Amino acid sequence: MAHKTITISEEAYDALAHLKRNGESFTRVILRVAHRHTARKLLEYIESQNPAPNLAESIERVYSERDGARLREVVLE
């Protein structure tokens, strides 16, 4: 796994350290918090759109069709 160095403020570091669970790395904290935030925002957006009753079936159909799709090789010259 590649590693990147980032610079954050002491305030941001303290906030992450406060969220860090025993034995958890800062990477795991960031991923846990980012995933939770993203999933919540997505759910809030979908709920705000008054989705059609058959939205779930439509999404499942698209995923099924996508899984059955075959990729083709393209040669660029």
Describe the structure.
61% of the residues lie in helices and 0% in strands. The protein is mainly α and 77 residues long. It has one domain. It is flat and about 45 Å long.
Number of domains: 1
Q: Nearest-angstrom radius of gyration?
A: 20 Å
Helical content stands at 55-70%
Q: What's the SSE pattern?
A: HHH
Strand content: under 5%
What is the tally of helical segments?
3
Structural class: mainly alpha
Number of strands: 0
Average pLDDT figure: 85
Q: What is the molecular shape?
A: flat
Low-confidence stretches: none
Sheet with most strands: none
Gap from first CA to last CA = 33 Å
Provide a short characterization of the protein structure.
The chain has 77 residues and is mostly helical.
List the helices and strands and how they pair.
Blueprint: H1 10-19, H2 26-48, H3 55-68
Keywords for this entry:
77 residues
